[in-house]
Amino acid sequence: MLTPEEFALWERQGFVRLGQVAEDAQLAALQQRMDDIMLGHVVYPGMYFQMDSESGAYQDIGKGGSGYQGPSLAYRKIQDLERDPLFLEYIRHPRFHGIARQLVGEEISVFRSMFMNKPARRGTVLPYHQDGGTQWNLDRERFFTVWTALDDASIANGCVQIIPGSHRLGLLSDRGHTITPEQEQAYCAEERSVYLEARAGEVFLLHNYLLHRSGVNRTDQPRRAFSVVYMDAATRSTRDGAAFPQVFGLR
Ligand SMILES: O=C(O)CCC(=O)C(=O)O
Question: Measured by CB atoms within 10 angstroms of the end CB, which terminus of the chain is less buried, N or C?
Fold first, then answer.
């Protein structure tokens, strides 16, 4: 559960720094497993892979399709990590269970369990956006994100940047996700933003309507992260009525 202080921060700011949740050995295993998946040493058929753009431009991301494109540490995004036992164990950590119970309910699924990478000397600017809206194709919106740094994250290597309190604006566009240049100008002034710098292993709890973005990596080390959206297990896809992988409250 969140402490009363953490819960007050959650309501006021839309994000909470939770500190390191994984044991050191578990963190090291997740770091290693992520590279093993990128390099093809551990394989899950049908897993979603997205290569980073060569140009650094958001519209050029994933040009090679959504499947595995061979051994490379330049993948930008990999999803379906709940299929991996090490990641599933972490997703099911009792700390996240308590928070999910408090914020959402007993039965919880994951919309996505996603690796987000800013490869060394690369990365693509992710513009300010919110998580949700019709673009997500969900029949309800009761969810939150747990974002874990797998490497130290800094301004230099493209850490996440947020606008505290912006979740209270609600969803800024029905379609969701990116916002207009006018909205960015109105709500996302640099001086109102906070850079979520973190040590490897540190976790942030993020409200899905919190405006957030991230930049490129100007360092020689990768900035790897693991981001999980926990939601009510009753949630269905509006595309095909499908449920999502359940992680808590299984009967
Ligand atoms: O890790 C990043 O750079 C962005 C993550 C993000 O947008 C998310 O987890 O929703």
Answer: C
**Residue pLDDT, tens place only, 88-140:** 999 999 999 999 999 999 999 999 999 999 999 999 999 999 999 999 999 99
Q: How far is the CA of 155 from the centre of ligand 1 (A)?
A: 14
Judged by phi (left if over 0) then psi (alpha if -120 to 50, else beta), residue 72 lies in: beta
Between the two ends of the chain, the Cα-to-Cα distance in Å is 22
Q: Go through the domains of the chain in sequence order and give each one's CATH number.
A: 4-245 (2.60.120.620)
**Cα 122 to ligand 1 centroid, rounded to whole Å:** 16
227 in contact with ligand 1, CB cutoff 6 A: yes
Q: Establish whether residue 136 lines the binding site of ligand 1, counting it when its CB lies within 6 angstroms of any ligand atom.
A: no
User: CB–CB of 91/145 below 8 Å?
Assistant: no
67 Cα to the center of ligand 1, angstroms: 20
The total of other beta-carbon atoms located within 10 Å of residue 54's CB is 11
Distance CA 102, CA 37 (A): 33
Taking the C-alpha atoms of residue 206 and residue 210, their distance in angstroms, rounded to an integer, is 7
